[in-house]
Specification:
Transmembrane segments: 6-23, 223-243, 255-280
Helix content: over 70%
Strand content: 5-15%
Protein name: MotA/TolQ/ExbB proton channel domain-containing protein
Largest sheet: 5 strands, antiparallel
Keywords: Coiled coil, Membrane, Transmembrane, Transmembrane helix
Coiled coil: 511-553
């Protein structure tokens, strides 16, 4: 009797343990059911990053104290303006949970009139405004700091924000939240490129497989524990027969009673295992349906947006290349008059070289030597002219001395005349003698006047001949100098034109391969576009096949899971 009670106590403990394991397993099965949310609770959300790829919270955490204070003033709705447009006043009117639609009201003042309008910006742009030195708050006087190290000067942040399409869900499970975080991290790191559906599917299925393997590992535990209780009951019954003195009716009755009690544990183990498998199968059916809805959401809502972003990038690239081609053709067209001028200059150079060949380089060298000989001869003539001029200057100095002597004689004659006037009485006595002396002096005075006139006439004639000779010599020298200057100028211009021609030829050398390089670039661009279009067509075909396979799988699941009579009875019994 004691053995039966002991066995009954052990079986009750086993059944309780089976119930505990079943409850734990059922909780995990419920997690499988709620792994994926309903498709109505899924949507596409926007997320904005700065040019460095940081989120608004990351940028906000790295703000300096002065910038954090400026951001707080902006969030409080303090009026501010941009220094480059001081006639516009801005003010934040609604943060909208610091999302993608921060409402700002702008008032434009034109004299005494004003006009107001509302616009929206993402929150990260508002954070960037806190780091912008080009804004100033209205009615708030900022004083410079007098202590501490100077703040680093930051340039104005004019780079556009990066817009990302991410997945969001409401009332989702902890496992699906991890799926969303991994998927969104992949989309953030893969920004600017086409997303791969297989990668998104793999991220989703890993969480589901981990949970499913965990349930499969313990779903049959109640059955194994029940079998353990049955074996314990048989062992206890056989031990009682062996140790009780042999096979008796009482011993057999005790053995059968123990086996029946032990079979209760196996019954509950089998029942709970069958119930758990049924719940697990239904949970997987619901999970697969929600999972297919999630995959359909990815293919119908998310991937087209990412592909459209890729197509937009390609369109932008095509527009940039078209603009580059147009601008390049315009620049090449601007070179036409320059090239025409260069061609004319080359033609002139060609004609000059032909004329030079016709004349002969020897004659050109002889002409240059003749010019140098003329310059040398002119130098010698200049030396002779300088000697002649020095002799003329000496003659003029001698004439000036003779004139000074004559002037001295005339002065003495004047003094003598005054003396004669003073001795009039003596003159009266010797009138005849004085008259003869006067005649003599008068005769000599005329001769002196004639001599003076002849000297002046001689100097005038000499000066005239000298002037004519100097003018003729100057004209001759000027003509020779002009001829030499023209020849040297032509020679140096020819040398300069030759140098310009060489530089132009060197500059135009890279343009010989311009058409070839442009053709190669056009072929590469066309090949890249064809490759991308083919890949997009293949992706579209793959998505279409996946949709058909999912529809076919849903139909098979509906057929497989249609309840039969036995299943209906089991569902009524286990619910």
């Amino acid at each position: 009797m004691f053995e039966i009670l002991l066995e009954a106590a052990i079986i009750i403990g086993i059944v309780c343990f089976q119930g505990y394991v079943f409850l734990q397993n059922r909780q995990k099965i419920n997690r499988v059911v709620s792994l994926y949310p309903d498709k109505k609770q899924l949507w596409i959300s926007k997320e904005f990053l700065n040019a460095s790829g940081n989120t608004a919270q990351e940028v906000k955490n790295n703000l300096l104290p002065a910038q954090a204070e400026k951001l707080q003033l902006l969030e409080q709705g303090k009026k501010f303006l941009f220094l480059h447009t001081p006639s516009e006043i801005h003010r934040v009117t609604n943060l909208n949970n610091r999302g993608e639609q921060v409402e700002i009201r702008r008032t434009v003042y034109d004299g005494f009139a004003s006009n107001s309008e509302t616009y929206y910006i993402p929150y990260i742009r508002l954070v960037n405004l806190a780091t912008d030195n080009e804004i100033e708050f209205v009615g708030l006087k900022t004083e410079p700091e007098t202590s501490g190290p100077p703040l680093p000067e930051r340039k104005r942040n004019t780079a556009p924000e990066i817009e990302l399409d991410l997945i969001a869900a409401g009332n989702c499970s902890r496992e699906f939240l991890e799926i969303l975080n991994d998927t969104n991290n992949y989309l953030r790191n893969n920004k600017g490129a086409a997303a791969d559906f297989n990668i998104l599917k793999d991220i989703s299925e890993r969480q589901s497989e981990v949970l499913e393997k965990e349930i499969n590992a313990i779903v049959a535990t109640p059955l194994y524990v029940g079998l353990l209780g049955t074996f314990l009951g048989v062992i206890f019954g056989l031990s009682g027969i062996i140790l009780g003195g042999g096979v008796t009716n009482e011993a057999i009755q005790t053995f059968i009673t123990g086996v029946v009690v032990a079979m209760v544990g196996s019954f509950f183990g089998l029942l709970l295992t069958l119930w758990g498998n049924t719940l697990f199968k239904n949970a997987r059916f619901i999970r697969d349906r929600h999972q297919n809805d999630y995959y359909t959401f990815l293919q119908a809502q998310l991937l087209p947006r990412l592909h459209s972003d890729m197509a937009g990038s390609l369109s932008s690239l095509k527009a940039v290349l078209d603009a580059f081609n147009r601008e390049f053709l315009d620049k090449v067209a601007d070179f036409k008059p320059i090239i025409a001028g260069i061609t004319a200059n080359i033609e002139v150079q060609k004609n000059f070289l032909q004329k030079l060949e016709e004349i002969g380089y020897d004659q050109m060298a002889k002409a240059s030597l003749q010019v140098f000989d003329k310059v040398t001869q002119s130098t010698e003539e200049f030396q002779k002219f300088l000697g002649y001029q020095q002799a003329l200057n000496q003659s003029l100095e001698a004439g000036a001395g003779a004139a000074a002597s004559v002037q001295s004689i005339l002065e003495r004659l004047t003094g003598f005349e005054r003396g004669i006037n003073n001795v009039g009485q003596y003159i009266g006595q010797h009138d005849n003698l004085i008259q003869k002396q006067l005649d003599f002096f008068g005769t000599h005075e005329k001769e002196m006047a004639d001599i003076s006139a002849k000297i002046e006439q001689y100097f005038d004639q000499a000066a005239g001949r000298l002037t004519e000779l100097m003018d003729a010599r100057m004209r001759y020298l000027e003509q020779d100098a002009q001829n030499a200057y023209e020849r040297w100028s032509n020679h140096f211009e020819a040398l300069n034109r030759d140098n310009i021609y060489e530089r132009v030829v060197q500059y135009l050398e890279p343009f010989k391969k311009l058409n070839t390089q442009q053709d190669e670039l056009s072929r590469e661009i066309n090949q890249t576009q064809r490759t991308l279009l083919q890949k997009m067509d293949r992706d579209a075909e793959t998505q279409a096949r996946l949709l058909r396979q999912l529809e076919h799988m849903n139909q098979n699941l509906d057929k497989v899971t249609q309840p039969g009579m036995l299943k209906k009875l089991m569902d009524k019994m286990f619910k």
